[in-house]
Structures are given as structure tokens and as C-alpha cells.
Write a structure and sequence with these properties.
2 copies of one chain form a homodimer. Chain A has 18 helices and 20 strands. By secondary structure, the first copy, chain A, is α/β, with parallel strands linked by helices. The first copy, chain A, has a domain at 5-14 and 99-410 and 495-507: Alpha-Beta Barrel (TIM Barrel), CATH 3.20.20.480. In chain A, the strands form 5 sheets. A 7-stranded parallel beta sheet of chain A has the order 6-18-17-14-12-10-9. Chain A has a 4-stranded mixed beta sheet with strand order 2-3-1-11. Chain A starts with 42 loop residues before the first helix and ends in an 8-residue tail after the last helix. Chains A and B meet through helix 1, helix 9, helix 10, helix 11 and helix 12 of A and helix 1, helix 9, helix 10, helix 11 and helix 12 of B.
Chain lengths: 515, 515
């Protein structure tokens, strides 16, 4: 039935009435970096990190907790001693396999207008993924639930600066784990029309997600496989280990030609060496090991080099983000990714417990690192708090304000005669001002970035208006945006087909809940 | 009497007992940039901005509201039509004069251990200067007064990341304007021992400040002139105008061989063209015009190219800071300064009304712009709020936290065998962690930047400890630091001499209060 359309997009049967936008946000656009990336390592130093990563793969090896994966690797020339899960691989094989992966690729969601690209000098943002808790400043912190999950999806859909959905913006814990992915994906596919993510938690969840994404896009099975339509993100279990559920999900995705982000969680001082170069060498080895496996399974499969190296607080062992070390780790990860000709992933991370000043300076450092290193996809870009343990509604809004500014910032500066404005400077002279002159009048509407959240009124006006600080303004705004939310169109037949799929899989018992 | 010492530094007679430090801050250091600067303009585009600045100087001219300055410029070959204040100068003269200024110079305060350098790849930070108001979250916003003025100086002295004092950290309005500079300088010279600033508000204030700085350092008049010992900062009255008090102060400083920062206040859309290139061309013309005058007066006098170009909110006309435009303006100003081989000044500015999330993301953007453009001196680096109308105690502490991180961040990354840690990765293997291994134990004390203000505890611990947000932590910390403050040593004779000078000048009536 779903195979009957060839356009890749069904006719929209109902176009809901749109209300006037509450926020004056940037239009949907796929931004590109215009600056040179910041590169902390010279060519020799970069070669030393690469060499260390290769030595880890050759001499130490990576544990693959997946017998089929080990067999595939051995068949391709890797070494595994019987009875062990450790696999070593030599650098020629690694380089040959990694070179098969595309430098850049397009991903097409159910709404093709929201297609994106990962690679080259393009950058994109995805919302917070996978926190167990959610918070807002009025109701406080609570365990994740479907209502908040849906509301965060509505915000992701509302903001044009959110280019893709990643994992659940908060875990909807009130849905049973066996069927959570079905309800969650139904919500995601009906409340948003941007690129979707599948959790690599065993084979059923990935296959169900693939099927639902296919149905939502109105594609045949063959059409689905032709292009990247979604992605998964797997983390190694650092140090030096890839677990079964993640590997299995990633392998399934590769068999469907779908993108896999491989992001080791190499916290320097805990799961990786305390030295940045060592942590990055280990990150590289762990990421490339999985990428080699996926390229053997499906040569040319789109993959993303994931960078999540940060450091811990050596006093407490707590993870820290948005630190000077994190900025450098992101920039060097960018160098490594470009060396391997792979798209790469950064994050907007912080370790603050509340959406205050610290949360923003850490986020700003994280975004500075990710963008000056020229990450192609920036995960957790809006809403992440507490090192990823909570999704904050106010932080979501505040983050959208700053990621818009990072997008706007990446544009060339004109030095045309018009821009240099010598005639205007002569016309205004030493005793005038530029507010009223024609040159200003012709340009004032869109001369500058216009924030939707910042309060630039003077102190007296700000006080008269209630002295509202930024988290409270963000709170008021997200409530308003949710009230005015209109879901993206989906034709009734597709919606029915999705519902039927969910019901059928629910009757079948969903997915296994332990591994 | 003060001329009797030759060492440039008197023996310290009393060394106050030191208490244990409340904050684990970075040691005093003069940081250097290790990255390449971010340069938005290519060589052609930069040449176009330079050419536009030169055309402004040649064809439009700058008003100098100072007859003696006009005469000096005319004598050197500039053109002034009788009865007008407008001066034009051709680019050959401009380039010849600007090339006399040093690319880099050292400034030596009364404590030579706090000497700094402006130029090259060195960067330094100065505290907030000149707000009329002061605030803390407990007592709110109030008009500046001597007590708060002194407390802000104590913080400037306490933090090693504050390299120099600029103008008054808040205006001590409770001291009469005619003698304010005397009491204020006495406080500054006794509560701090870092580089001082003189307001260019007519000849008396500058001369009094020079004399007090000389006395505090125990120098003869000749010794004083041998080296930069202090600085002034002048702003053009944009567009295209230099006022009498600023010019007169700057000219006096040049006659004493002391550094002058020339910082036009070119807000795009108000006092300068709405287009960034035009605003920067105008900023350059205004800065170079004053620099030419100073180089004629004292060839080789140290000067700093000041960059303060930002934009206004076109809805309200209010100045905005820490915007994408501001970041680009700083980076391009850096390109221009390097083109003219001049040290340059940036700022840490924001337009927020309270030390919340917005204040920090705007500050982070400002610092990102100033440091990625490689400013040599960054004014208003700690404490600035409300576009400069208020000095905030909490913002001061928060800013010191982030400027320390910007300092720490600028260091090379080791890729030695030790740093790559392959043996350690092999030793720990897939089933261990790095917290306990020798490689970590040997390095954990100073492996990472250690913040003094960030709270990295988990949510539960944070809540148990009172759920204290960042401004409140900053509030508690500044109170503690003030309580524990010990002024830097000054021998009694010097202190007496300073007091006598203040008393004598007070009896003489101080300085004129209108111009």
C-alpha cells in the first residue's frame, strides 16, 4: 500500500490554518561555515594522534561484544583469538575501509523541505536527546513522561534552527519500555517532520523505527533504502569496547543504508587517559573500529565520526563540559575527522544544575568548540542540562537563541562601496547621526541579527516591565509557543497506517527490554 | 624627595600577614595567543576598508575641537580651512606617522612584578570602567559611591586574571567632581599595585594622576618618563569628532611618553553607518586621526588602536553588545590593527540588566570576538552590565571565571608519548578505568582547568546544599574575598607623600568641573 506512491511525498490533504508567528526567528536554512577551522595541532602532531589511534587498533584492540560482528571483522582480515572478544586490525585495513565512507551525504525526512546535509562545511543542530528527567522553573524537576516528551518535540518542530531530531528529548518513562519506541516514534513522526533517529537498542527497535519512518514518508521499501532517511547514534562503552545492543542496531542500520554516528564517551581521567591527546587517540580508535565494521557490512554506508571527549572534575569524578579542554577536544576532533574525510559530530553540553549563568557560559564554550572545529552535526544543541540528566524547557529556548546567533554569525561581510558608505559618512558629517539617513532607512529592517529572547531595554523600562530575567522570559515564551503549536501536515491514510503499525507491534509485545 | 631613589622601587617596610587564599585561581601570568587569529576579510577586502578609512581622512576630514591640536596638525602638513575645526590629512602622512608607533610595548606599575605588555600575541584584561551605577543582588542597584568603588578595586587586585586597572570601576559620585580624581587615585594606588589609568578630562586631572602614579612608584620625574607607567583611554565623539578634554588629556600623556588608547564609539546605525564595513572604516579613520596627532607630538609614543564598534537595536536605538556583528567587528578590527602594526583594544561587553544567562552569553560572544581577533588589551573584562551603566559585583566574579578559562584555553596541546599514553591505554584495557592508574595519579592535581565558581556537583547534592545558583555563589564569594582582602604593601613614606599631594591639591581646589 505504502509502495504505491513514487514521488516520495504524498499529497497533503489537510493544510491546517497557520497563526501569526510568536517569534521572529531565522528562516529554515542549512548554514555553512565561512571561516577557517581552528586547528590546535600542526600536521606532525596530528599525525602522532592518528598513529597512536592506529597503534591502539593494531596492538591493543577493541572488544566487540557481538559474535557476528567479530566474524565479519575476522572474515575481512582482522584478528581475534578464539574465546576472546578482542579484535585487532591493521592500519591498512582501517584506512581502506574508512576511505569508503562518504565525505558528505544528504538526509531526507518525510518533509523533503527539511532535508539536510552532513559533511563539508555545512553545520546542523539537533535537540537534546535521552535525559531521564525534565524540568521547568515553575514545576521543577521530574521524571520524564510522554506529555513533556511531546512538548519538547513541539519545540523542536517550531524552531527552524533545530535541523533534526535525535534521541528522545526526554525519556517518556510512563510508557512501558517494551512499547515505548512505538508510541514515541508515532509522536515524533506526527509532531515533527524533520530527520528522525533510531535508538540502537537491539534489532526490534531499529527495525520498527525504520518501518515507521518509511511509512511516514510514504516510501516503498526500495525507495527507503535509496537515500539516508534517518540515523542512529551509538556510543562505545569506553574504554575500548562496543556493546551488543549498540553494535546490533548499527549493523541493522548499515544493512538499510542508513547513517550511523559513532560517538565514544571518552571522558579524560575516567574512561580515557587524563591527557587530551591520549583521550583523543582512544576516541579515534573506538570510533574507527565501529566504522570499519559498518564499511565491511555496507561499503560506502554513511557514517559520522562522533566526538564527545571531555574531562572529569578530578576532585569528584563528575563529568565536566564546556571546559577549555572540551573546546580543544572538539577542535582536534574536527582535524581528525577532516583527516579521515568523515563528517563529524559535536555537542552543546554543560554540567550546570539550573538554566543560569554557568549553564550558558559552558554552553557557549561547547558551541565555540564545536563550531570553531566545524562540526557538521551538533547534538544536544538545545535543552540539555546537568550533564545530560535533565531536559530543561527554559534552556531549550535560551539555546535556540544562541545557536541562531552562531548560525547568523557565519556569513561573509560585504566591503562593497555600498557597505563602505563613504558618501553617507560625508553626508552625515561630524554633527549628525545615522539613524535618519537614507542609507540606514534602506537597510534597518534586516541590517542586524534580531534576537527573540534577549532583553535590550534600558534598566528603568526593564524594571517597570517586571524585571523579568532570562529563564523567566524563556519560560513564558515556551508556554506561548506550545499553545500556538500547529503540527506539520500528514495525510489521514499515512496517519492511519502508522497507527495500525503501532497497534500491531503492540499486540506482538513490542521489543525485548533486557539484553 | 621622591627623586632620591634609583631602583624604581622602594624597600617594602611592612609586609602584611597573608591569609590562605579563598579561591584556587590561576597564578599571575601574561597569556599569549597560540591559535591563528580569525580573519573574516581577505587581503582585498581589508585593503578596501583601509582605503575607505584613508578617503575619510583625505576627503571628509575629522573635527578637532582643540585649536592647539589643529595648529600642530597643520604644521605637520594637514589641511584646515580657517574658521573651521575640520582637518584633512593625506594617506602618506597618516601612514608615515602611524608607522612611528611601537608594535608592542611594556608598561610597568608601582609593583614591577605586575608589569604587562601590549602588542604581539599577548593579551591582558582590565576591570569594568566608568559606570555611574553599581549593583549587587542583595542591595540592588544604586548610584556609584566611594565604598563600592574601593570594594571593586579590592576585587581587581585580588584576581590575578585582572592585569590592569582602567577607569573607575564605578564612578564614586559621593566625592565632589573637582577632587574626585585625587581621592579615587589615592584609593587606586593604595588598594592596588597594577597598571593605572588617567581620565583625559582636561589637563589638571591627567597631570595630577601622572604625579601620583610617579610618587607611588617611587620614581624621579626623569625615570617616570623613561617607560610607560600608566595609560589613558580616549573616545572620539563619533561621528568624526575629537573633543577638547579627551584631546588635551591625550596630548599631555604623549608629552610624558605615556600610552594612549584611542577608541571610537562607532555604533553601527547610530553614530556610524549601519553597514559593518562602513562603521569599521569610520572607526579606523577616527582612531588614526588622533594617533597621527600623538605621533607628531611625540614620535614613537605608545598608542593602542581601540575597537568599540557594535550595533544598535534598530527597534529602539539601544546599543547592543556581544552580537554576531560585534564578534565580526572585533575580528576585523584585529586585522586592521595588525595591518597598521598597532596593539589593539577589545572589550567584554553586554546589554543585560541583571547577571543572568543573557549577560553571560553576550559576554561570551564579546570575549570570543576579542580573543579570536587577538586583542592585546580587553577592557571592561569583569563586572560590566547594562551596556556599561552598572558595575555588578556578581558579574565581576562570573567574568573572572570565564576570562580565566579564556586564558587557560590558550596553551599548546602536548602530543608527546607521555600524553598519547598508549601504554596506559593497554594497561587499563577494556574492563578498567583510568581513575586509579599511575598515569592519572601522576597528573590529576593539575591536569585540567579547575573553576572556582562553577558548581559541578550532581543535582541531588546541589539541592541538598541549598540549590544555590551562580549569581548567588558569586555574591557569597565576593563578600568573602572582600573580608579577607589584604592591600598590597606600600611603605609609609610613599603613602604619606601621596596623602600630602592629595591634601595640597585639594586645598588648591582640585580640577575644573566643566569644559
Amino acid at each position: 500500500m505504502a509502495d504505491s506512491t513514487n514521488t516520495g511525498r504524498r499529497k497533503r490533504q489537510r493544510e491546517p490554518k497557520r497563526v501569526l508567528p510568536t517569534i521572529n526567528q531565522l528562516d529554515w536554512t542549512i548554514p555553512t561555515y565561512v571561516d577557517q577551522p581552528t586547528e590546535p595541532l600542526n600536521a606532525d602532531a596530528l599525525a602522532r594522534v592518528d598513529n597512536a589511534a592506529m597503534r591502539i587498533l593494531e596492538e591493543i584492540g577493541i572488544d566487540f561484544l557481538h559474535p557476528e560482528a567479530i566474524q565479519i571483522l575476522v572474515d575481512a582480515g582482522c584478528v581475534n583469538e578464539s574465546g576472546s572478544q578482542r579484535v585487532t586490525m591493521d592500519r591498512e585495513l582501517v584506512r581502506a575501509m574508512v576511505s569508503k565512507a562518504p565525505e558528505s551525504f544528504e538526509l531526507i525526512p518525510r518533509n523533503p523541505d527539511h532535508r539536510i546535509v552532513w559533511g563539508g562545511n555545512i553545520f546542523t543542530f539537533g535537540a537534546v536527546a535521552s535525559p531521564p528527567n525534565v524540568s521547568d522553573i515553575e514545576n521543577g524537576r521530574r521524571v520524564g513522561n510522554r506529555k513533556d516528551f511531546q512538548d519538547l518535540l513541539r519545540l523542536s518542530q517550531t524552531f527552524n534552527c533545530i535541523h533534526f531530531n535525535s534521541g528522545y528529548p526526554v525519556e517518556p518513562v510512563d510508557i512501558h519500555a517494551s512499547v515505548r519506541h512505538l508510541d514515541a516514534l508515532y509522536d515524533k513522526l506526527t509532531l515533527t517532520d524533520k530527520i528522525c533517529h533510531a535508538y540502537s537498542l537491539g534489532p526490534e527497535r531499529v527495525k520498527d523505527t525504520i518501518e515507521m519512518v518509511r511509512i511516514a514518508a510514504g516510501l516503498s521499501h526500495d525507495e527507503f533504502r535509496e537515500k539516508p532517511r534517518m540515523f542512529t547514534n551509538i556510543n562505545s562503552s569506553s574504554p575500548l569496547k562496543h556493546d551488543w545492543p549498540m553494535l546490533d542496531g548499527a549493523m541493522t542500520m548499515a544493512r538499510y543504508g542508513q547513517p550511523v554516528v559513532v560517538a565514544p564517551f571518552t571522558l579524560a581521567g575516567a574512561m580515557a587517559p587524563i591527557t587530551l591527546a591520549g583521550a583523543l587517540a582512544q576516541q579515534t580508535a573506538e570510533a574507527l573500529a565501529a566504522i570499519v565494521l559498518l564499511q565491511i557490512i555496507n561499503p560506502g554506508n554513511p557514517v559520522v565520526f562522533g566526538a564527545f571527549t571531555s574531562n572529569v572534575d578530578m576532585k569528584s569524578g563528575a563529568p565536566a563540559f564546556g571546559t577549555p579542554e572540551y573546546v580543544r577536544a572538539m577542535q582536534i576532533s574536527g582535524q581528525l575527522a577532516r583527516h579521515y574525510k568523515l563528517p563529524w559530530r559535536g555537542s552543546n553540553a554543560n554540567a550546570a544544575n539550573t538554566p543560569d549563568a554557568q549553564s550558558m557560559w559552558e554552553s557557549m564554550f561547547s558551541l565555540m568548540g564545536s563550531t570553531s572545529g566545524q562540526a557538521n552535526m551538533i547534538l544536544h544543541a538545545a535543552g540539555w542540562l546537568e550533564g545530560g540528566l535533565t531536559a530543561s524547557f527554559e534552556k531549550f529556548i535560551m539555546d535556540c537563541e544562541i545557536i541562531q546567533q552562531f548560525m547568523y554569525y557565519q556569513q561573509p561581510i560585504s566591503t562593497s562601496d555600498d557597505a563602505l558608505a563613504i558618501d553617507t559618512i560625508a553626508e552625515v558629517g561630524p554633527n549628525g547621526h545615522f539613524l535618519g539617513c537614507q542609507h540606514t532607512q534602506d537597510r534597518y529592517l534586516d541590517a542586524f541579527y534580531s534576537p527573540f529572547l534577549s532583553d535590550w531595554s534600558n534598566y528603568e523600562a526593564w524594571e517597570v516591565n517586571g524585571a523579568i530575567d532570562t529563564p523567566r522570559r524563556a519560560h513564558n515564551l515556551y508556554k506561548k509557543l506550545l499553545k500556538e503549536f500547529v503540527p506539520p501536515p500528514m495525510d489521514d491514510a499515512t496517519n492511519e497506517e502508522l497507527k495500525e503499525f503501532v497497534e500491531r507491534r503492540r499486540r506482538e509485545g513490542g521489543a525485548k527490554t533486557d539484553f
